[in-house]
Amino acid sequence: MNNEQIRTAARKHLDGLTKPVGSLGKLEDFAVKMAEIQGKVVPESGKMGAFVIAADHGINEAGVSMYPKEVTKQMVANFTQNGAGINVLARHCGFDVFIVDAGIASDVDLSQVIGCKAGYGTRNFHEIEAMTADQLEICLANGKQLAENAVTEGYKILALGDMGISNTTTAAAMAIAGGLPAESIIDKGTGISSEMLDHKRRVILESIERHAPFSDAKDIMRKVGGFELATMAGFILGLKGKGCACMIDGFPVTAGAYMAWLMDNEVSAYLFAGHKSKVKGHAVMLQAMGLEAIVELDMRLGEGTGAVIGGFLVNLGIKIASEMASFNDAGVSQSTGKEENY
Which of 266, 296, 303, 323 is catalytic? Predict the structure, then answer.
């Protein structure tokens, strides 16, 4: 069956379950999209994994963050000790957590972290291109391999999270270079002052001017990107046709997804926006990709926290489709009139 046929059959299946038609709202929508992703009228629940991909950013040298780059490595250590927000939320939402070093500025313990280092942090793109063409290709290839490995291991829903001091600056530069308006994208990120925001805006716009024009998404990532965000783009591209959904998190992760979308618009078919971040530019990128956020909780932590919350709800939709009794099975009489889906 093609996607339209699966979509129609999945709706018919849901309408035949012991509930008024459409009464579970968006949970039913999630089940239908998962049916399309998996190519099955009744989608299957399975393992869920969250990949928190970390890297450092040379743009931190331009004074765009309140935090030093060392915090990236320190937070990765916190992840491995199950002490961060993503660890708590993933545990209670049913996600396994995997930490990935895509370009932390120092070495980390690879007994607990997946090593995918493309370099020891990107270069300061306010002065020079962020990475080499070879480093970009390493990131994209690493992301695709991570995705392929996860699918092979039986994961049905994969969430992406980020860790990288100054990566909201990188994400904003990528989004603007990708054609989105600067005034709707640049925001404070992690709690900077209004004065620092003005400086951050100036650094981003000067960097865009320095590196323009941008020929395509690869050119954008090479000039103003981040190792973890490029790895995420590769990860998303690597899931195409694999029957697996990808939950994206907040502003930085969505910038990586936006790069993947610029490379292949069809990725939206298997992407879910876990949440709408408090960072204003997030909604703009989601709208560009045709994605609607599952929840809006005024979050701006990152780490994949919003992605696993959204993933939990999507999985509930799958459970409804696959475990709820039909009217026939339960011996329950159906409505005798045409029900309104309101």
Answer: 303
